[in-house]
Amino acid sequence: MSKLAKKISLLVKILLFYVVTFVLGLVIPKRKDLVVITASKGKYYNGNAKALFEYLLTRDDLEAYYSTSKKELFNKLSKEESNVIYHYSRKGLWLFLRARTVCITHGHADFFGFFPSLWQNWVYLGHGIGTKARLFLRERMSLSERIQTILSRTCVYIATSDFTRYLLCATYHIKAKKVFVTGYPRTDVLYKNRKIGSEITQHNILYAPTHREGGVTQLFPFEDFNISRLTEFLRSKGLSLNVRFHPNNYKKSKREIGTILNSSKLIKDKSPDVVEDPQDLLLSAEVLITDFSSVSRDYLFLDRPMIFIMNGVDDLGKLPAPMRPEFVFCGYQVRTYEELEEALREILEGKDRFAELRKFVRDLTYNYFDDKTSMRVVELIKELA
């Protein structure tokens, strides 16, 4: 079968799924105690979806299933947990149609081919606390983005604070009553396992740049960057460097890390195909290096120093109107390798001049600083059902 024929066949199957789920979704009764969860177009097991699912497995008042559109992921997860289903199986279809609550992280495309029922509650768990202006906070929107904002009105949302709640309302043009401040489930593990200062036994730095639209992410985009100098610095300080590309373009960016990886065993690839869930990487990192990535919002939970590479930041997007630059980039802002190395030296010497600013930004970003978010989300699910 040719590639075109395969694409046409897949399109027909997806359209058929939409029709079937629309019709049957109207007549099949829903179970209030049944929750179906997925993430990232059904292709990953991570983030808020993973954290909430694993918490639900400890409860006996709700029955939860994790659904994936990726056969390889289904085969892997189903060996460890029976409550894992494949999107396009009979069981997956039936449980979706029976579920009162459907949880997603990236939008309706997480359940591609499934039509939302009028009798279901779709809960948007989110995948990051946005630091860029998006949708209605930008001057222009594409057609696909406009469609996204229309579909978004069929969901209820969770937010991490009153501030991020109103950012969501402005971004999607949704009413505040549809956004509930619970926190993000994935931060529970950060709170439970956080270590401060000298208690950290693994001495490493996490470098997690955001994605570039349609391009390769360049590491250390400095004119004065020298790989030999970096590796010598890491060796002299007893450090290792973990590099994690964004899921949207890590495959294209692998060529960038290849050259750097070959230069030293102290630099390690921790992209999504190596480590699926970044939370473990955050826990073990003494310092986070990033740019415009929302991973910095999660790292606030650990109250550790951050370094922001500002080269090319203006090309990645604009700040939302209420956000001041120092709130988004609440750490060292560097534009040369010399500045990066100087910031690292200062941090390793125990100086932390941005600690007070980080705490302010954390309190702005999170109403709750605890490990009870999953519990609050579950109570919300039960209340809505």
Beta fraction of the residues? 15-25%
Question: What general form does the structure show?
Answer: globular
| Main sheet attributes: strand count, strand direction, barrel closure | 7 strands, parallel
CATH class of the largest domain: Alpha Beta
Question: What is the SS-derived class?
Answer: alpha/beta
How are the strands of the biggest sheet laid out side by side?
3-2-1-4-5-6-7
Question: Low-confidence parts lasting 5 or more residues at pLDDT below 50?
Answer: none
Cα(first) to Cα(last) distance is 45 Å
Instruction: Provide the CATH topology of the largest domain.
Output: Rossmann fold
Query: Can you say what the CATH homologous superfamily of the largest domain is?
Result: CDP-glycerol glycerophosphotransferase, N-terminal domain
Please give the domain count.
2
Radius of gyration: 22 Å
Number of β-strand runs: 13
Element order: H for helix, E for strand: HEHEHEHEEHEHEHEHEHEHEHEHHEHHH
Q: Judging by the overall fold, what is the CATH architecture of the largest domain?
A: 3-Layer(aba) Sandwich
Mean pLDDT: 86
The tally of helices reads 16
The assembly state of the depicted protein chains is single chain
